[in-house]
């Protein structure tokens, strides 16, 4: 009897087991069907980057931009603090100062198109890592120079190198964020650039006024400004080391047909941001943006990269790209010229104000024309009679105040861009910037000069940053970095041209340089009205 009961129980157990087995198989088939359904609908880049969310990885990547931002600012602005201190050591005239200010930008102009195609062909990461390491090496060489010729060559080469990694880092940052966050992280990048303009005068204040003169091994004469330039070599080196551990842009990988690698990166970013296992990433396939064979060994020698680059620049000559690139480049030429000229010459204007107080007594207030007149007196100086005013704390304090105002404006712009949109905000800020710049002519004292130029720079630099973001959104991935490089190249051409023109205008008088810098910003604002809207436009 017990035996029969046991047999029945066993039979029931077997039936239940078979039933469960069938249910599991049905669920597996259903899951397989769902996966196959997902596989039949490959996701775009925008869908995939949205699915990764916004979290720890995005914060780390954005913070990593601190050192590239410092490297960019240190490369182009560091000499502006050196020139008032080193003009006796180097026997500099106003034209010499303009030339030295322009050398880094001249190097950037020379390499702009080459770097653009290298970044779009070879990828962002390698350009960032090796480019910044090379730039740091050249910055060390700059710190060892003791004559104007060697300094000019070294700064030119430094500008030639840094153009690539900086453009690549901007694209790299943008391509790890969806359209919802893209403009805002670029605003954060602008804050970092502005913060670098606070760190730089703070460093200069701590080093340049020191009377340091020695000759190591009797080879070169070393001064405080040489030490200052040596420290400025650290940010690009640190940048190269940090980005060695960063992933390649998945958008770039999709563009060259490496969808499997791109999907792996999406999964890793998803895992870091959400804390979930990477196999739960909802995207299983990516759209194929190219028909390149992922396993194919592509010939990427320097000659072929340049040839491919020249061929791929042809789309800029076709509609709608040609009209857009003309407006973009003209606008960048004008707006960046004004921003960079004020940025590069402002420490010398503050130094001239300090010199005026030293020469005429601190109780005598100087208007802007008196300050510029004092600046002109350093144009021709006999070496034996040359003296440097090292009691110039106001130079560095004023420069830091300008930097702080810029940081505040960028912080506010993050909110305003959501309320008004990029185009409207750029238009308003550009007109305001030009107005403040022109109003400098009526400044009765150094404080007014400081306030007006701080407002001019902060508003204008936010506009410039927004226009950079717009440039990235107006072109497809295969042209994006090249478009950005053209944007930056024409801005730097404007800076080079401006540094040739401005010393001549300073020699003429007070009004010409001031109204020249203000009027070109007004023209830039007018050009902004011709931009198409790119609000929440996905990367394509």
From TrEMBL:
Which cell locations does it reside in? Membrane
**UniProt keyword terms in alphabetical order:** Membrane, Transmembrane, Transmembrane helix, Transport
Regarding the membrane, this protein is recorded as: Multi-pass membrane protein
Q: Which residues form a coiled coil?
A: none
Instruction: Work out whether the entry's keyword set contains Membrane.
Output: yes
Q: Name one GO molecular function term.
A: transmembrane transporter activity
Where does this chain mainly localize? membrane
| InterPro entries, sorted | MFS, MFS_dom, MFS_trans_sf
Q: Which residues cross the membrane?
A: 59-86, 98-115, 127-144, 187-207, 227-246, 322-346, 395-417, 514-531
Please list the residue ranges annotated as the Major facilitator superfamily (MFS) profile domain. 61-537
- Indicate yes or no for the key word Metal-binding: no
Source superkingdom: Eukaryota
Quote a single Gene Ontology cellular component term: membrane
- What PANTHER family does the record tag this protein with? EG:BACR7A4.13 PROTEIN-RELATED (PTHR23511:SF36), SYNAPTIC VESICLE GLYCOPROTEIN 2 (PTHR23511)
* Name this protein carries in UniProt: Major facilitator superfamily (MFS) profile domain-containing protein
Which species is this record about? Phaedon cochleariae (Mustard beetle)
């Amino acid at each position: 009897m017990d035996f029969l009961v046991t047999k029945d129980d066993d039979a029931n157990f077997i039936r239940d087991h078979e039933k469960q087995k069938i249910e599991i198989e049905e669920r597996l088939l259903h899951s397989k069907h769902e996966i196959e359904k997902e596989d039949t609908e490959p996701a775009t880049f925008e869908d995939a980057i949205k699915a990764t969310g916004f979290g720890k990885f995005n914060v780390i990547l954005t913070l990593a931009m601190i050192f590239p931002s410092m490297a960019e600012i240190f490369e182009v602005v560091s000499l502006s603090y050196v020139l008032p201190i080193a003009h006796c050591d180097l026997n500099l005239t106003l034209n010499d100062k303009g030339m030295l200010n322009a050398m880094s930008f001249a190097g950037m102009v020379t390499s702009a198109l080459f770097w653009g195609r290298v970044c779009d062909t070879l990828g962002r990461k390698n350009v960032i890592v090796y480019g910044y390491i090379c730039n740091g090496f050249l910055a060390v060489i700059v710190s060892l120079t003791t004559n104007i010729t060697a300094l000019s060559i070294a700064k030119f080469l430094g500008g030639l190198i840094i153009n690539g990694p900086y453009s690549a880092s901007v694209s790299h940052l943008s391509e790890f964020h969806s359209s919802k966050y893209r403009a805002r992280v670029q605003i954060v990048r602008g804050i970092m650039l502005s913060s670098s303009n606070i760190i730089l005068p703070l460093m200069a204040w701590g080093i340049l006024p020191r009377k340091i003169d020695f000759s190591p091994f009797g080879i070169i004469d070393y001064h405080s400004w040489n030490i200052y330039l040596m420290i400025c070599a650290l940010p690009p080196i640190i940048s190269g080391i940090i980005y060695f551990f960063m992933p390649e842009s998945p958008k770039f990988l999709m563009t060259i047909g490496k969808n499997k690698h791109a999907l792996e990166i999406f999964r890793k970013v998803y895992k870091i941001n959400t804390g979930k296992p990477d196999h739960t990433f909802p995207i299983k396939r990516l759209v194929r943006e190219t028909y390149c064979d992922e396993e194919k060994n592509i010939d990427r020698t320097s000659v072929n990269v340049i040839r491919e680059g020249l061929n791929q620049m042809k789309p800029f000559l076709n509609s709608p790209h040609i009209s857009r690139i003309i407006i973009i480049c003209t606008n960048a030429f004008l707006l960046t010229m004004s921003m960079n000229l004020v940025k590069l010459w402002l420490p010398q204007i503050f130094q001239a104000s300090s010199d005026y107080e030293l020469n005429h007594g601190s109780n005598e207030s100087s208007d802007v024309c008196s300050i510029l007149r004092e600046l002109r007196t350093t144009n021709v100086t006999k070496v034996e009679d040359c003296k440097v005013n090292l009691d110039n704390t106001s130079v560095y304090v004023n420069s830091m105040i300008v930097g702080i105002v810029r940081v505040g404006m960028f912080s506010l712009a993050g909110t305003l861009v959501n309320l008004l949109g990029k185009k409207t905000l750029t238009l308003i800020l550009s007109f305001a910037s030009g107005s403040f710049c022109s109003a400098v002519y009526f400044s009765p004292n150094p404080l007014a000069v400081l306030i007006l130029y701080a407002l001019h720079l902060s508003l204008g630099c936010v506009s410039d940053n927004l226009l950079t973001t717009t440039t990235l959104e107006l072109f497809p991935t295969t042209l994006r970095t090249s478009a950005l490089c053209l944007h930056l190249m024409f801005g730097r051409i404007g800076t080079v041209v401006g540094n040739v023109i401005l010393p001549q205008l300073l020699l003429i008088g007070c009004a010409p340089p001031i109204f020249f810098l203000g009027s070109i910003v007004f023209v830039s604002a007018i050009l902004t009205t011709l931009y198409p809207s790119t609000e929440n436009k996905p990367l394509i």
